[in-house]
């Protein structure tokens, strides 16, 4: 069926309007998308700046805190241990008196190794409990201790006075003794070197 000539212009005009509508729709969509992307970028940028601002503020507020320096105070005659219990410090004359006039309530202990005692001797009346090779000695029960060393374990009601070669191991032994329940603990800081320097007697082992 042939189309009437009067209707042909209307069809062409309708087609043009349809094409224009589609073009306008596409342009609108592109414009909205562009505005959305722009807004998203702005939001991200704003969020990033805000986050950085907060972090910087916190850094400035909580920057590296100043930790007060720890101070140590000397107390003549007393050594403060990590356990918070003081050790009594003994000088040469004190140890000499203890060796010359032994007391059942005060035990002198040489914590050096047996080979060292064989080479130099030891302070008279001192017991040998080597701290390096037998660090658990004072933590043993009475029976196990006597089986290992051949003499009774000093009771925790006694005062134990430690010495070594130069005072380092005796300090460690004092720490162990306090953990083992000894409340009366003494140290001879000068130890064997000080004893020998002052002409102290050496008992052969």
Automatic annotation (TrEMBL):
**Full protein name:** Rhodanese-like protein
One Pfam family of this chain? Rhodanese
Q: State the CDD domains in the record.
A: RHOD_HSP67B2
**InterPro entries in UniProt:** Rhodanese-like_dom, Rhodanese-like_dom_sf
Which organism encodes this protein?
Westerdykella ornata
A Gene Ontology molecular function term of the record: thiosulfate-cyanide sulfurtransferase activity
Spell out the GO cellular component terms annotated for this protein, sorted alphabetically and separated by semicolons.
Answer: mitochondrion
Instruction: Report the residue ranges that make up the Rhodanese domain in this protein.
Output: 102-204
Taxonomic lineage from the root: Eukaryota, Fungi, Dikarya, Ascomycota, Pezizomycotina
């Amino acid at each position: 069926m042939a189309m009437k000539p009067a209707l042909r212009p209307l069809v062409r005009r309708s087609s043009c309007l349809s094409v224009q509508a589609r073009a306008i729709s596409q342009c609108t969509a592109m414009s909205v998308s562009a505005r959305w992307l722009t807004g998203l970028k702005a939001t991200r940028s704003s969020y990033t700046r805000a986050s950085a601002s907060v972090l910087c503020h916190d850094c400035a507020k909580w920057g590296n805190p100043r930790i007060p320096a720890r101070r140590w105070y000397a107390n003549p005659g007393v050594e403060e241990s990590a356990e918070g219990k003081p050790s009594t410090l003994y000088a040469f004359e004190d140890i000499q008196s203890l060796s010359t006039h032994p007391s059942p309530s005060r035990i002198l202990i040489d914590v050096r190794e047996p080979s060292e005692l064989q080479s130099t001797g030891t302070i008279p009346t001192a017991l040998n409990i080597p701290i390096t090779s037998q660090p658990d000695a004072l933590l043993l029960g009475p029976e196990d201790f006597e089986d290992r060393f051949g003499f009774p374990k000093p009771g925790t009601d006694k005062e134990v006075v430690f010495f070594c070669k130069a005072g380092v191991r005796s300090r460690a032994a004092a720490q162990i003794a306090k953990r083992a329940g000894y409340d009366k603990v003494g140290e001879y800081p000068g130890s064997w070197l000080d004893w020998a320097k002052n002409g102290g007697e050496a008992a052969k082992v």
